[in-house]
Amino acid sequence: MSEILPLSFYAHILGFDAESDAQCVGLCTDTRILKTGEIYIALKGENFDGHAFVQQALDDGAIAVVVSEPTQVQGRVWQVENTSDAYLKLASGYFNEVFTGQSLGITGSNGKTTLKEMMASILSQKGSVLATEKNYNNEVGLPRTLMQAKRTHQYAVLEMGAAKPNDIAWLTRWIQLDVAVVNNVSAAHLGGYDSVEQIAQTKGAIYQALKSQGTSVIPRVSDYRNTLVDLAEGHKIQTVLPDSECIFELSLLGAHHQENALTAWTMAKALNVDDESIRVGLKQVQAEAGRLKLHEVSSKLNVIDDTYNANGASIKAAVDVLTECDGQTALVLGAMAELGQQSDEIHQAVGDYAKARVNQVWSLNAPAYGVNNKNDFETLMNSIEEWIQSQDKATILVKGSRSAKMERVIEQLMEAHLCS
């Protein structure tokens, strides 16, 4: 729920007039959850068009509607060139009006959501925190987060994703940050870019959104460190602190989370958070579903759910987690999406990395990995079951891009073996 502001506040942002006594309770892009007194934004996408619901929005109590096409409806209509732009501009204006605390921006190829959760946990030791829900970090998710700001919030932790060039610059153009970080740069969503260098340029644009006294946090080790430093020019630059300066415990699987924690520590120190609050906050972070979530399914089987998403770097990190597990290990892979022309090459490299370190590797309808590929789900599950039955103690990790829907493997393994 947003703070109530005059409708004229929003009208003026878009260059319209509105009666001074009308009050607006927020913004909405979905008529199914619209509240009386909200402004309805008619977003358009490849598979939907919110303009089809403009009249319904007005009938259901929308105080105004924002459209990008002429529409024959009775009510307050604000026509703009682009409703996505308007949504972000309105939400940014609202955020700038009501939020007076310290804001942090997080982007990167991997670990954004985990780092966001770490920062939210740390800062919650010191005050009230607004943080991006789940991974709502795109052109719809960020405005949604901004509209949840309250005058009582002391911190805002904003996660931002980028699937194509200029996405980060677009998301941040109307807000300013106190601390910003590019957690890392790798070949994620490469299908939307010409090169990984272009990914670095896109993500590094977050530093341009810093306030004049803001802090740019830069990875310690990155092939694109110089690019990030150049983009952060004009602001204070802080390299992620070494582990010798930070003592903490984590409840998360994976050595790569140590680097996330060091980055969180560095960001927190930029906000003058004390060491003990950082330690407590980091310790309290728990794995979310689909993100290296460990399930002790039975006395002989552990299952690690890492099905939320996948790219080359994150799969290699998952393989490294498996190498630390007791007993026999297995990896079940779904395809990686959005890798462009390098897709086969990246799949093969990941498959080779896994085969050299894990006892058994399967893929589902993804032969490019060069591992034991199965083209249908039932055949895959039968093969996995046969392997499990031959083991005294085993750990299976499942991972793939969202489009692969690898959570199906987790669900069936849990159903078949839980408490068995």
Describe this structure in words.
With 420 residues, the protein is an alpha/beta fold. The protein folds into three domains: 5-81, Udp-n-acetylmuramoylalanyl-d-glutamate--2,6- Diaminopimelate Ligase, Chain: A, domain 1, CATH 3.40.1390.10; 99-284, Mur-like, catalytic domain (UDP-N-acetylmuramoyl-L-alanine:D-glutamate ligase); 293-417, Mur ligase, C-terminal domain (Protein-Tyrosine Phosphatase, Chain A), CATH 3.90.190. It is built from 14 helices and 18 strands. The chain has helices at residues 7-14, 54-59, 83-98, 112-124, 141-146, 167-171, 196-204, 225-231, 256-270, 275-284, 312-322, 343-355, 377-389, 407-417; strands spanning 5-6, 23-24, 26-28, 38-41, 64-67, 77-79, 102-107, 129-131, 155-159, 177-182, 210-218, 236-239, 293-296, 301-306, 328-333, 360-364, 372-374, 394-399. The chain has a six-stranded parallel sheet, with helices on both faces. Strand 11 (210-218), helix 8 (225-231) and strand 12 form a beta-alpha-beta unit. Helix 4 (112-124) crosses helix 9 (256-270). The chain starts with a strand and ends with a helix. The mean pLDDT is 95.
